[in-house]
Amino acid sequence: MKPTLVILAAGMASRYGSMKQVQSFGPSGETIMDYSIYDAIRAGFGKVVFIIRSQFAEQFKSLFEPKLLGRIETAYVYQEMDSYTNGYATPSDRTKPWGTAHAVLCAQEAVDGPFAVINADDFYGREAFENAAAFLNTRCNDKQYAIVGYELSGTLSEHGTVNRGVCTLDAAGHLATITERINISRSGSEVVCEDGLTPRTLPLSTAVSMNFWCFAPSFFSYTQSQFAAFLQEHGQALKSEFFIPLVADQFIKEGGVVSVVPTRSHWFGVTYKEDAPMVASSLQHLIESGVYPVSLWS
After folding, report:
1. Which domain holds residue 134?
2. How far apart are CA 204 and CA 152, in angstroms?
3. What is the pLDDT of residues 87-120, one digit of tens each?
4. CA dist 79 to 7, 44, 104, 113, 150, Å?
5. What is the largest CA-CA distance in the chain?
6. How close are the terminal C-alpha atoms of the chain, in Å?
7. Cα-based distances in Å from 173 to 41, 209, 257, 281
8. 20-37 b/e with 16+ CB inside 10 Å = b?
9. In this structure, is residue 298 part of a structural domain?
10. What CA–CA distances, in Å, run from 234 to 84, 106, 159, 229, 274?
11. Banded pLDDT at 21 (limits 50, 70, 90)
12. Is residue 295 included in any domain, yes or no?
């Protein structure tokens, strides 16, 4: 069975100010998602599942169905406030769903084999998809998941702070812990986290997760049980979020293994509007280098 690619595209892009998931960055109108899907197809993925908000469904389908028809199977699932909450009484003034792990949970009806999870607005690179596919096809199981690891220095924005899953590794090179750090920025030769946690500064070489994960289908039932516990403890906090790293951390504590899949691929993304020219320039360089055609789907 070919692995499935799950794309997290339900975010409201509050820092960016618009719906960046469908903004054109490539010379023929391609979104960042187009390049991820193109790389996934080349790496042997057989299906792509878009996690979106229901009000954007027709926009997404009209954008992707014409170019993906006959190339890869597609499915669309919706992350809504009450998805998989099992009747939990959500605070009336909460305005958005429960975060990335909750989003993945919403895809379980569309996924029936090993799968990868990525962000819609991050460019991960061809080798990252090849390495992820190799892991999913040969090593992924109920007790062993993986992340694709990047160096922190190559994942910062010049235009504001970012959030990153900061990794520490055990003696075997597997993920030991992953901590969601927020408000990260470069200050001279240091990387500073203004989030009240320690350490406040991090080495440039720190391994971070860019939310490129590899999971077996067992992830869904495991996450469902963790989500129920999360709601009981944090569900009344208006801005509480159920992040994938929270689930991965608990999985490790309970004896699971999260391998770190290395990549030499260059990551870039759009957290802020000011990042957009850099993304377009980086894609153009890859096209001129022969990594991608000028028009992906022609």
Report:
1. 4-288
2. 6
3. 888 888 887 888 899 999 999 999 999 999 999 9
4. 12, 27, 9, 20, 27
5. 53
6. 27
7. 29, 15, 10, 34
8. bbbbebbeeebbbbbbbb
9. no
10. 16, 19, 31, 9, 34
11. low
12. no
297 within some domain:
no
- Contacts of the segment 169-173: beta carbons below 8 A, 24+ positions apart: 169/207, 169/260, 173/260
Strand-pairing partners, residue 55, are none
Whether 11 has a pLDDT exceeding 80, the answer reads no
Does 296 fall in a domain?
no
Amino acid occupying residue 74: T
CATH code at position 22: 3.90.550.10
Looking at the 3D structure of the chain, how many domains does it have? 1
Choose among 148, 142, 81: nearest CA to 119.
148
Mean pLDDT of 225-242: 87
More confident residue, 145 or 94: 145
Share the mean pLDDT of the chain.
Answer: 90
